[in-house]
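Backbone-to-sequence.
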């Protein structure tokens, strides 16, 4: 089959972590299922960056053959932020131009697979109808649960959902939420998880009993990621005598607040702020730690949990929408979001019983559900279903 991806955001360069899971999925569809795969990636750029020098500018490519993935990019300045549908219209026109070019150079795809209704999916629905290409929509956004979208944006999202032959959510909880918010799409949503790239198939070593237990949180540092709860929970763990370290990998607007909190709680010596980690270096990092911690208040999936499991790490996570479908029995523990004491108890339980968590068994369970092979196969089945629907 010939599959064309239309993501709502996508890496501008190979060092860009934004939307890296879309790129991983494209590569998996090519390498694991043998499809012809392309990407068209129109992206809005804020006017505030107009005079900023971007480090990636010199390496930005409007077209490249990326390991066999035919990738077409175009950046558009978001010139109409205050006009409903304004910036969407700009993005849709750019997507249409990219699609026309793509078809001329590579032929018409069998399936157009859009990621996130706002705005790639909405544009995809219109292009699907105009060019007569069946649309698959995968939804990832936390914005629906967090009530971030305006009424006109919700109308666009509904248009995308109704225009798709298949609607996929990256977690069962997200699918249920979307069914409630968009009743016209009821019973359409299927669950296919985000995939974990092959680079995470390196299992951790067993911990040396003489060193501290290393917990890691790998996330953007924002309020919704719950790192304030995590540091409070970790403080209780340290003050109750556990020999442990907390590694925080990432950056974001509340990093200074988190650093100050660790100092105020007297645990700064036990908390390491690692900064941003290049995606290619994450697998090695996971071999150096013992437990992945997701403290988020809401996640549609929580790919870092799946990545950790693929590396054989047990996971402590909040029941925040995504991890519930990732952390199975024997993989770690789930706790309510926003409750540092419950989080502390789970950290202690898993950290003090590491020998009971078999890294090989954890990794094998995760591979069966989240590997490139598993997810690419599930997507291929869905593509075949919409191209050759079963008739009664």
């Amino acid at each position: 089959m010939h599959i064309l991806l239309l993501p709502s955001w996508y890496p501008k360069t190979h060092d860009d972590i934004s939307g890296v899971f879309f790129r991983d999925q494209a590569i998996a569809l090519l390498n694991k299922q043998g499809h012809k795969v392309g990407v068209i990636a129109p992206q809005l750029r804020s006017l505030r960056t107009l005079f900023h020098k971007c480090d990636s500018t010199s390496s930005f490519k409007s077209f490249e053959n990326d390991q066999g993935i035919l990738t077409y990019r175009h950046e558009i300045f978001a010139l109409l932020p205050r006009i409903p549908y304004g910036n969407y219209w700009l993005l849709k026109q750019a997507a249409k131009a990219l699609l026309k070019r793509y078809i001329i150079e590579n032929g018409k795809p069998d399936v157009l697979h859009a990621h996130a209704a706002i705005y790639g999916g909405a544009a995809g629905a219109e292009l699907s109808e105009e060019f007569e290409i069946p649309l698959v929509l995968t939804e990832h956004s936390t914005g629906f649960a967090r009530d971030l979208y305006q009424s006109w944006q919700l109308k666009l999202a509904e248009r995308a959902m109704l225009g798709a032959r298949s609607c996929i959510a990256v977690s069962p909880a997200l699918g249920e939420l979307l069914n409630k918010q968009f009743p016209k799409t009821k019973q359409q949503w299927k669950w296919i998880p985000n995939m974990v790239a092959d680079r995470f198939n390196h299992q951790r070593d067993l911990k040396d009993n003489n060193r501290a237990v290393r917990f890691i949180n790998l996330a953007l540092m924002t309020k919704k990621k719950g790192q304030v709860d995590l540091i409070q929970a970790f403080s209780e763990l340290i003050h109750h005598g556990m020999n442990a370290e907390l590694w925080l990998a990432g950056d974001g607007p509340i990093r200074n607040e988190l650093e100050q909190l660790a100092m105020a709680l007297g645990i700064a010596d036990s908390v390491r702020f690692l900064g941003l980690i290049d995606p290619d270096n994450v697998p090695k990092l996971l071999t150096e730690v013992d437990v992945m911690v997701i403290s988020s208040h809401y996640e549609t999936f929580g790919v870092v949990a799946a990545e950790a499991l693929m590396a054989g790490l047990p996971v402590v996570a909040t029941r925040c929408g995504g991890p519930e479908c990732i952390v199975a029995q024997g993989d770690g523990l789930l706790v309510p979001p926003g409750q540092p004491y419950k989080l502390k108890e789970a950290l202690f339980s898993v950290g003090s019983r590491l020998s009971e968590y078999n890294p090989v068994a954890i990794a094998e369970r995760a591979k069966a559900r989240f590997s490139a092979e598993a997810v690419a196969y599930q997507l291929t089945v869905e593509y075949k279903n919409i191209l050759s629907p079963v008739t009664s």
